[in-house]
Amino acid sequence: MPATIKTAAEIEKMRVAGRLAADVLQMIGEYVNKGVTTNEINQICHDYIVNVQNGIPAPLNYGSPPFPKSICTSVNHVICHGIPADKPLKEGDSVNIDVTVIKDGYHGDTSKMFVVGKPSILTERLIRVTQEALYKGIRMVKPGARLGDIGHVIQQYAESHNYSIVREYCGHGIGANFHEEPQVVHYGKPNTGETLEEGMCFTIEPMINAGKRYSKVLPDKWTVVTKDRSLSAQWEHTLLVTANGVEILTLRDDEDIERVHNH
User: Fold this and answer.
1) pLDDT at residue 2 in the model
2) CA 61, 169, 224: angle at the middle one, nearest 5?
3) Quick check: pTM over 0.70?
4) Residue 255's closest CA among 142, 95, 98, 138?
5) Would you say 236 and 134 are in contact if contact means Cβ atoms under 8 Å apart?
6) CA atoms of 141 and 249, how far apart (whole Å)
7) Domain map of the chain by residue range?
8) Which CATH number fits domain 8-262: 2.60.40.10, 3.40.50.150, 3.60.15.10, 3.90.230.10?
9) What pLDDT does residue 112 have?
């Protein structure tokens, strides 16, 4: 299945959904504090998406078994798909909050790393390198580029810092569906994989571990952790391939990267 090419009307809806997802991450930051539970964070995000944005939280009841919450909260050695729970956050915890909003039938999907209080030097470095890896991947996006080009720069950058790339989970096409073609892996060789075309929408969402790359799924069938219990970080954006570059549909105000990158 090739990736779908979005129409102008669909792109407008993707921009709106992306903006809303970004707004949730901007809103929630002040609540990520010592003693707060990820369940409380989930409830705040849920209420904001449903009542303020008049949107739908895509993760809720998604998949099999149905995901039980409205966002994913992945703390410390959790790689992705962490289920919000009643354990209070503690000083130094790192938490990825992954938000997907459906608005007018279209999806905006984005995640951000937060730290409770002051991060350790190791935590801060992993989080920073992971965001930089995402940005390096984003800057490769343009018509005629290939998915392997994106994966390659992300892998090279992470491994140059002696980190490892999680391989079992990847970015994905997105639109009227939460997950569409293509699969966007965060490792690979240049000049391999699908060729990008104007109008494609997909996520880039590298998961990078301070230790080894291996992961395992907990018995809840969702939570993915590092096998060696090393720290993991992730950042995610939803992207649109434009005529001569890329537009970040989920850009936040706190970011130091241009929304539209032309080559």
Assistant:
1) 74
2) 65
3) yes
4) 138
5) yes
6) 13
7) 8-262
8) 3.90.230.10
9) 99
Q: Where does the pLDDT of residue 3 fall: very low under 50, low under 70, confident under 90, or very high at 90 and above?
A: confident
17-to-103, 238, 251 alpha-carbon distances in Å: 5, 10, 12
Residue range 5-63, pLDDT digits in tens: 999 999 999 999 999 999 999 999 999 999 999 999 999 999 999 999 999 999 999 99
Higher pLDDT, 2 or 262: 262
pLDDT of 1 higher than 80: no
Kindly report whether the peptide bond that precedes residue 65 is cis, defined as omega within 30 degrees of 0.
Answer: yes
Q: What angle do CA 176, 181, 183 make, to 5 degrees?
A: 130
